[in-house]
């Protein structure tokens, strides 16, 4: 056994070694090549975003280091991480997979405005006028329905949701992700009192709350539940796996759908602003929207693209997305909804 | 659901599960002791009993998450599934505790002598209690407390099995509260409530741990194995098979075939090299953290101060989430910000997290280390010629390989801890465990299983290489 005295010395040497190692990030050899650098925080699924980012690297020669919004790390989330780092940011561009969190960052003074040369191809209601953020490539909130257990029609889904037990209906916990956005839209449409009544009603009727849209999809795909609230990309994951499922858009009483675009924003005082602007221009281009539309996650293009290159399923999604409700109201009540839900779920 | 309710669930569960696991672990320990005469069987039985401690939570959680999802309509069934998985792990931990702790210095003869001489004064029961807590009750008590602590701290399996409302664990409650935007100060405050329970449990363990130095017992070991009755043998063997079935056979059966197609998919996508690289970097970080934790633990043990031991283990008891979030805040301070985007925060967090376990391993090594034999082997080595070779081999078997295994076990735990890796990793480095969680989220089961297989096999290969290299290294530390 090592002598106690020597072990303390070894500890000291080890700590020094770690400290020395720590100033050399892994793959630092790339830095020495004099290539331009860029750091992107990306909440879009890594499996789909990686190919877009690699195409940017190939086209521009700029090396991109990406930090994805890991499933394992919902407790922190990229928005919270950006807020924590705002005094000395290491991130240049925030690619969010929705909009409300980005708007929160704007309020927290984490972003700086940039109006991209490609921003004008995105409809006005999906971008910030001052250029703090710009939306692109959207998803929709949908009902995923197990077609072995029931038919996926508007009437049948409404019949289940409007009355009786919801023990075979699943929804993700609304504390984060697109379910939180869904709740914020409902709050904007209904007001707090009615949202609380609805929440209380679905719980009393036994709705199954799970830890994410992915699990909601799994429960419906496996036939454990008949209906689930989820997003188009999750529904397509089940459809592509030949599960007996179909989807319908979630429609509000006004007939509007809930369309949640990706959004991109430039970080205030970021280390590589020039490369960051190039990346934002790249993401907002028609080519990138088309690439994401034709990926397995089927993100819906918001700007004009060559429709001949879109699948029939995508064209259908585009029609539903055209009915999308404005998210400005939802953004303004997002914090209020989160505060209420925090109280509701933590008892504080 | 309040924190107090979540704590109530967690405390109740941890008490019940650790109590239920204790008799099983005693039976299996007796089986292990009884098999000592058959060396190979003894090793196999010990390995099987300890196996659940080394199966990553991700593998267990992933294998049983859909089972749990199918039980969503029954809260009782969900709780039973989670408790059963915990029970098997705790049972393994309790067996490990029995291996770690030396036989008590209060021998059966000592207890008998005490009975003969005891007077009937009012304070006799205090002395009875003290003798029994230091004697026959010490090992079960430490095993019970260790099990309760392990169960209370568990997070990842609970999160994957959706133990987040009814039933719930405090660790998942804290995770969700923080995700919902609770500031770090609040999270620390919540953790302090949970800490009270852990410290209350921990104090007796620290007092009951053997002091540093050779442990000898001249009397009859109180918990020594007697001949096993057929019923005891049957229950112990069944328990072992259940453990192997739940943690090894079923996960292999459910996922094994997909590993091959997953490897093919990785090769087709050209991702094999990058995954190898990720695994290697992750192992490097885990190794640095584990060796440092082990060395610090040796230092703490050498100083032998209970308050220092407590100080060393308290951060680890807060759990990886709290450690990660605290260090994230600490490394925003201008003085430390220069090394924020580096390995350092991740490695420091892993060290803090591993310190309690490192201390237990150091105690184990102290207990198992046959000092007189090592000394004799050292003399043989110094003699030169063929005796020196024999001496070197003996030192390897009696000492070095044990340290290598201890470092490997700690590194294994570091490698598979997801909260630290995902919160504190540098931007340029995606630890393999983070990649695995993402693969699970995207439903890419084939590649998930393949990468998991690689992440288990590559470290094993590296340990073998390290063993060969270390065995040939000249002696440095030994007298």
Structure keywords:
heterodimer, A: alpha/beta, D-Maltodextrin-Binding Protein, domain 2, 2 domains, 14 helices, 10 strands, 45% helix, disordered N terminus, B: 479 residues, MetI-like fold, 21 helices
Structure in a nutshell:
Chain A is of the alpha/beta class and 348 residues long. Chain A has helices spanning 4-22, 29-32, 46-60, 77-84, 100-107, 154-162, 177-190, 192-204, 213-221, 232-240, 273-283, 286-293, 312-322, 328-346, and strands at residues 37-42, 63-68, 93-96, 111-112, 134-146, 169-172, 208-210, 227-231, 245-249, 259-267. The longest helix of chain A is centred in the N-terminal third of the chain and has 19 residues, at 4-22.
Account of the protein in words:
The complex is a heterodimer of chains A (348) and B (479). Chain A is of the alpha/beta class and 348 residues long. Chain A has two domains: 33-138 and 261-309, 3-Layer(aba) Sandwich (D-Maltodextrin-Binding Protein, domain 2), CATH 3.40.190; 139-258 and 331-346, 3-Layer(aba) Sandwich (D-Maltodextrin-Binding Protein, domain 2), CATH 3.40.190. In chain A, 45% of the residues lie in helices and 16% in strands. Chain A has helices at residues 4-22, 29-32, 46-60, 77-84, 100-107, 154-162, 177-190, 192-204, 213-221, 232-240, 273-283, 286-293, 312-322, 328-346; strands at residues 37-42, 63-68, 93-96, 111-112, 134-146, 169-172, 208-210, 227-231, 245-249, 259-267. In chain A, strands 1, 2, 3, 4, 5, 6, 7, 8, 9 and 10 form a ten-stranded mixed sheet that branches. Chain B folds into two domains: 1-259, MetI-like fold, CATH 1.10.3720; 269-479, MetI-like (MetI-like fold), CATH 1.10.3720. Chain B is 78% helix and 0% strand. Chain B has helices spanning 3-34, 39-50, 57-70, 75-100, 108-117, 124-134, 138-153, 156-160, 170-179, 184-208, 230-268, 272-303, 306-317, 320-330, 334-337, 344-368, 371-383, 385-415, 418-424, 432-441, 445-472. The longest helix of chain B has 39 residues, at 230-268. Chain B is globular, with a radius of gyration of 23 Å. Residues 216-220 of chain B have low confidence and may be disordered. Chains A and B meet through helix 1, strand 2, helix 4, strand 7 and helix 9 of A and helix 3, helix 9, helix 12, helix 14 and helix 16 of B.
């Amino acid at each position: 056994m090592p002598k106690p005295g020597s072990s303390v010395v070894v500890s000291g040497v080890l700590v020094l070694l770690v400290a020395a190692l720590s100033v050399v990030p892994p793959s630092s050899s790339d830095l020495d090549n004099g290539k331009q650098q860029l750091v992107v925080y990306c909440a879009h699924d890594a499996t789909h975003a990686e190919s877009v980012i690699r195409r940017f690297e190939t086209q521009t020669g700029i090396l991109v280091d990406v930090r994805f919004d890991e499933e394992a790390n919902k407790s922190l989330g990229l928005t919270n991480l950006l807020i924590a780092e705002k005094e000395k940011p290491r991130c240049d561009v925030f690619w969010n997979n929705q909009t409300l969190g980005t708007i929160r960052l704007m309020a927290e003074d984490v972003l700086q405005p940039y109006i991209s040369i490609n921003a004008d191809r995105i409809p006005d209601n999906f971008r910030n006028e001052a250029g703090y953020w710009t939306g692109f490539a959207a998803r929709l909130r949908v009902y995923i329905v197990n077609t072995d257990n029931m038919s996926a029609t508007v009437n049948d889904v409404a019949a289940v949701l409007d009355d009786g037990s919801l023990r075979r209906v699943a929804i993700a916990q609304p504390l984060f992700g697109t379910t939180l956005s869904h709740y914020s839209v409902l709050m904007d449409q209904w007001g707090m009192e009615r949202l609380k009544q609805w929440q209380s009603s679905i719980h009393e009727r036994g709705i199954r709350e799970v830890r994410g849209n992915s699990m909601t999809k799994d429960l419906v795909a496996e036939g454990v539940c008949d209906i689930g609230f989820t997003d188009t990309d999750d529904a397509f994951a089940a459809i592509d796996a030949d599960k007996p499922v179909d989807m319908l858009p979630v429609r509000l009483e006004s007939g509007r759908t809930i369309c949640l675009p990706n959004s991109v924003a430039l970080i205030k005082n970021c280390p590589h602003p020039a490369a960051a602007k190039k990346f934002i221009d790249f993401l907002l281009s028609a080519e990138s929207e088309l690439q994401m539309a034709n990926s397995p996650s089927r993100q819906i293009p918001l700007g004009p693209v060559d429709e001949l290159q879109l699948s029939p399923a995508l064209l259908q999604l585009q029609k539903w997305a055209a009915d999308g409700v404005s998210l400005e109201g939802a953004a303004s009540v997002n914090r209020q909804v989160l505060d209420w839900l925090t109280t509701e779920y933590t008892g504080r | 659901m309040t924190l107090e309710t979540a704590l109530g669930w967690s405390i109740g569960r941890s008490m019940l599960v650790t109590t239920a696991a204790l008799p099983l672990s005693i039976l299996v320990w007796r089986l292990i002791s009884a098999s000592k005469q058959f060396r190979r069987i003894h090793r196999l039985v010990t390995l099987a009993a300890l196996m659940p401690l080394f199966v990553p939570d991700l593998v267990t959680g992933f294998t049983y998450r859909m089972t749990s999802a199918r039980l969503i309509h029954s809260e009782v069934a969900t709780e039973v599934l989670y408790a059963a998985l915990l029970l098997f792990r705790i049972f393994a931990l309790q067996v490990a505790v029995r291996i770690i702790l030396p036989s008590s210095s209060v021998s059966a003869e000592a207890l008998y002598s005490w009975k003969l001489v005891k007077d009937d004064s009012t304070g006799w029961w205090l002395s009875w209690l003290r003798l029994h807590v230091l004697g026959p009750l010490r090992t079960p008590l430490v095993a019970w407390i260790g099990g309760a602590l392990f169960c209370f701290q568990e997070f990842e399996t609970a999160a994957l099995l959706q133990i987040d409302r009814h039933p719930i664990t405090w660790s998942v409650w804290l995770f969700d509260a923080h995700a919902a935007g609770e500031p770090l100060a609040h999270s620390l405050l919540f953790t302090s409530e949970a800490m009270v329970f852990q410290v209350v449990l921990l104090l007796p363990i620290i007092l009951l741990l053997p002091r540093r130095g050779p442990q000898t017992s001249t009397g009859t070991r109180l918990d020594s194995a007697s001949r096993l009755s057929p019923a005891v043998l049957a229950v112990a063997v069944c328990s072992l098979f259940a453990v192997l079935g739940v943690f090894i056979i079923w996960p292999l059966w459910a996922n094994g075939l997909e590993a091959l197609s997953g490897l093919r998919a990785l090769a087709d996508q050209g991702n094999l090299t990058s995954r190898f690289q990720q695994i290697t970097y992750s192992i490097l970080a885990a190794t640095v953290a584990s060796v440092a934790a082990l060395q610090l633990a040796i230092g703490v043990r050498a100083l032998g101060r209970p308050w220092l031991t407590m100080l060393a283990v308290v951060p680890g008891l807060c759990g990886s989430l709290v450690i990660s979030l605290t260090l994230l805040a600490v490394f925003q301070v201008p003085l430390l910000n220069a090394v924020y985007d580096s390995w350092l925060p991740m490695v420091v967090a892993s060290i803090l997290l591993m310190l309690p376990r490192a201390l237990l391993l150091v105690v184990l090594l102290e207990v198992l280390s046959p000092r007189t034999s090592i000394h004799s082997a050292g003399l043989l080595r110094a003699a030169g010629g063929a005796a020196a070779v024999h001496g070197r081999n003996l030192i390897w078997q009696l000492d070095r390989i044990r340290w290598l295994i201890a470092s490997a076990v700690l590194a294994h735990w570091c490698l598979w801890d997801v909260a630290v890796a995902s919160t504190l990793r540098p931007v340029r480095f995606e630890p393999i465990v983070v990649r695995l969680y993402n693969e699970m989220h995207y439903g890419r089961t084939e590649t998930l299983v393949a990468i998991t297989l690689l992440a288990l096999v590559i470290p094993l290969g590296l340990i073998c290489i390290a063993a060969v290299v270390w065995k040939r290294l000249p002696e440095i530390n030994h007298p």
